[in-house]
Amino acid sequence: METLGAMFLSAEVVKTVAGDGSIVNISLYHSDNVTEWNHYKNGEDYLVKEKTLMLGLLTSMLSSQIWQLVATYLAWPVSGTHAIISALFGFTLVENGWEGVNPGNANPLCGSGLFKVLYGLFLSPPLALFIAFLLYYAVYKFAVSNGKATSLQNRLCYSFCVFLMFVAIGFTMATAKSITQPIIVSSTSCMHPNKNLFGLLVGLACGLVIAVPFHFFVLPALLESKRDLRVSLTTCSSIFSKNKKSTSQKDICLEQIDGGKDTEKAIESMCHDTVKESDEIKNVFRPLQVIVACFAALNHGGNDVGNCIGPLVTIWFMYKSPIDYSLDETAYEWLFWGGLGISLGLVMFGERVIMTMGTKITPMTPSLGFVVVLSASLVVMLCSLLGIPTSTTQCQVMAVVGAGVARGALDHGSLKEGLSTVDFRVFRNIGLSWICTIPFSMAISAGLYAALRSLVIGGFGEV
Question: CA angle at residue 63 from 58 to 69, to 5 degrees?
Fold first, then answer.
């Protein structure tokens, strides 16, 4: 799903990261065809601007990955989006100063450049927190904590969750760049009302087509099931040890985890402070978690892979046509490799961050996990549609906090008590890692670019 999202949903984000809407003032790196031809004939250096841009994009990717590897080792769920954007900012400052930064359009619905990046940085995390708080407040109040797992009210709540999830899935698929939407309304607005209206209609249709059969046929079977529904990934179980046994009375039980003493303490703490859900509710939300996780992977591929692979796609198009290159064409082969790479990264290095997200912020249950992923995915979907490079990591973390506070507020009767159910010490450390990402990525990129430019192209005053 990561790879599919990268290939079919990331085109707008790629343009924002490295196209005309980028934080980098791309116009400063375009050469004139006649001038460069004269430089070539006279034996002078030519296409220097294009070379500096290609080198800057390359060093930005390297700098971003250096910082993310360090953060992953430290179990910090940092933003790859902010790492690559900050790295781009660092290289263009070194090359052209503040003139090299593209302020862009301040309109939040049609933004570009620095403004669009800032919208993704400051608006998407609180939006994810707000959506998760409202959604889980409703789910927990009307479906989880009332003690009537099979009542009509609960059934309608479950079905509405399915409806909302498939509305979002249908909307995402119908608005993909690879889909040609029929003309419903004619408009030249940057908001693309025709595409959005078509996506909304398709999403509503998908939601109804799936939610109605789910309510009448699938849901009764899930509620009546006597089995403890779980997803077993036997192939991946070698990552975990065999020291812990799952306990059906606990909502947070991680089978066969091997992460050392810190992991043991985290699991013990979480399992002792468990939040109880009935077996019927677990059996409903566990399959939904799998589906919404696939949707999240699709959106993650569409946004985060676009962020990370955008500079490489630009380098490829510049290599093919240095002066008059365009990002209007979709480089499926490079997006495929980007999706494959992010998937392998999850398998190879994702365990530490998964432990932080799933066990250390607030007690996790199937219903809360479903709402967290759905809320974050809705925000990432919206940002991908607008071409805003947002952080899936930050959206997920803030959604965990929002849902955890909503549950605590209902359990204890006040928002203040609800805040106490979230471990803000962990959240503080995560926040600090987010803050560190911007200056560290900028510094690494600026230093690496300055060194490589002197070696590969020449000193700043020599060409």
Answer: 125
Residues 6+ apart with CB under 8 A from 338: 6, 10, 305, 308, 309, 312
Contacts (Cβ under 8 Å, ≥6 apart) of 263: 257, 355
Is residue 199 within 8 A of residue 171, CB to CB? The reply is yes
Please name which of 55, 80, 58, 57 lies closest in space to residue 68, comparing C-alpha atoms: 80
pLDDT digits 0-9 by tens, 357-379: 656 667 788 899 999 989 988 88
What amino acid occupies position 168? Answer: A
DSSP assignment string, 134-161: HHHHHHIIIIITTS-TTSHHHHHHHHHH
| DSSP state, residue 329 | S
Residue 237: the pLDDT is 43
CA–CA gap between residue 214 and residue 155 (Å, rounded):
10
Question: Is 34 within 8 Å of 366 (Cβ atoms)?
Answer: no
In Å, how far are 55, 94, 95, 408 from 451, measured between CA atoms?
A: 11, 11, 12, 52
d(CA 71, CA 420): 27
Q: Return the pLDDT at 19.
A: 67
Q: Are 301 and 5 in contact (CB under 8 A)?
A: yes
Residues 18, 53: Cα–Cα separation, whole Å: 10
From the number of C-beta atoms within 10 Å of its C-beta (0-12, 13-18, 19+), residue 240 rates as: middle
CA distance 154 to 454: 65
pTM: 0.76
Contact 124, 395 (CB under 8 A): yes
How far apart, in whole angstroms, are the C-alpha atoms of residue 26 and residue 92? Answer: 10
> How far is it, in rounded angstroms, from Cα 194 to Cα 323?
33
Cβ-count burial 328-344 (b if 16+ within 10 Å, e if not) = eebbeebbbbbbebbbe
Residue whose token pair is 């100063």: 97
Alpha carbons 377 and 179: distance in angstroms, whole number: 20
Contacts of 130 (CB under 8 A, 6+ apart): 402
